[in-house]
Specification:
Strand content: 5-15%
Largest sheet: 3 strands, antiparallel
CATH class of the largest domain: Mainly Alpha
Radius of gyration: 23 Å
Number of helices: 13
Shape: globular
CATH superfamily of the largest domain: Intergrase catalytic core
Keywords: DNA integration, DNA recombination, DNA-binding
CATH topology of the largest domain: hpI Integrase, Chain A
Domain Tyr recombinase: 115-312
Pfam families: Phage_int_SAM_3, Phage_integrase
Function: Site-specific tyrosine recombinase, which acts by catalyzing the cutting and rejoining of the recombining DNA molecules.
Mean pLDDT: 87
Structural class: mainly alpha
Number of domains: 2
Family: Belongs to the 'phage' integrase family.
CATH architecture of the largest domain: Orthogonal Bundle
Amino acid sequence: MDVSKIMMADVCEEWLNMKRLLIKQSTYAKYRNIVERHIEPDIGDYNLGNLNSYLINSFIYEKIKKGRLDREGELAVKTVRDITTILKSIVKYAEKEYHTENLAGNSVLPKRSRVKFEVLSLKEQKVMEEYLLDNLQEPRCVGLLICLYTGLRIGEICALKWNNIDFESKSITITHTLQRISMPDLETKRKTRIIIDEPKSESSFRTIPIPEKIFKIIRKSSYPHNDEDFFLTNSSKYVEPRNYQYFFRRTLKNMGIREVNFHILRHTFATRCVEVGFDVKTLSEILGHADTSITLNYYIHSSWENKQRQMMLLEG
């Protein structure tokens, strides 16, 4: 087969059609978005005969430069790594399907930046808890408390229904996540839509014990309710993550706390767990991490005081 007549844009579409049969809607939407925004516009017009590691590495380098100009921090590097991983998978598909050479053999992934997570200070956490406890009539405020004390992701709390709460074992079981994905619809002309799907990994399916003080709040908020109702609305209507993020920002403003991302609740929960002595395996399972190494790399950091104590051991 003459690979000089096969365009990368066509290979990209073939790869997406193949992947669509194997992966979740949300993952497919992410892949398509990356292909359409980054890969096809830049190298879609190349044919397989002209593609090589040099062109791929040049493409990656340009993405890194653009990422640094557009936004600083891990997000830019992570995005480029995602783009690179998908491109290499497409090239691998071309190698098997069209018997091309190892086109990406010498291409490299951008180096991962060290991630520094923000957490609420103890003072900020106290202010937040006091405000939320004064506004328990608002289910979305109770939802924020739940996230602060269980580490739920925003998509998980938005998908939470009353039937996910076991009042006997005092636990929450995570079975679904809610998110808005990019999925253009030619008939409705909508570019995105909400999906409620199973979590992204097996480890994200989990049952979390509820701290007693949070369980008492949930129990007081539970009557009357329908098991199939969403927790945040006590109705069949959901709150989508984007709107819950807006609510969180307004709440921060009311509390006089700096503007931060919703995910800070999860980081704060994990950090407090480490501070009170949670073992890594337990914390990893509660957070829904696929591997304890993720928990270790993200959250387990020795304090300066502990470093000093350890160094003192050298003195005998």
